[in-house]
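Course assignment 3, question 2. Fill in each field.
Student: A.L.
Task: Predict the tertiary structure for the chain below.
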Amino acid sequence: MRQTLSHRLQECQTCQSIKPSQQNVGYLNPIQVAAPFELVGWDLMGPFPTSMSGNRYMVIAKYLTKWCEATPLLDSTASTIALALLHKVIFQHGCPQKLLSDQGKQFTSQVLQILTSFLGVQQVFTSPYHPRRMA
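Answer field:
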């Protein structure tokens, strides 16, 4: 019976398409941070239900000190996010050495590339997410 089930599962297209991959997954490496605002990580959250002010998105910035800056945003464009970075992080706390984000189009945009290079901030990106490999 075990052989029959094993054979059937190997032939089943649905079972094979959702089967977890047998690849070895790399180890997670802890992020080493020595000083506050050496590395600032941020991400775009939303869309949330529209607030009374018309905001639907939020940017979060945090790292070593566990300090968070939650900023309500009207939209998720690169220019809006760049302004939030300037007003909520850089103008209040100074420039971080590195800025960690995912590879969303807002964070990889030319607007943020120009802003970070002008300010001397190194952009660092997380690994891309592959939903097919996560099954």
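Instructor remarks: The chain has a mean pLDDT of 82. The longest strand covers residues 39-45.
Grade: pending
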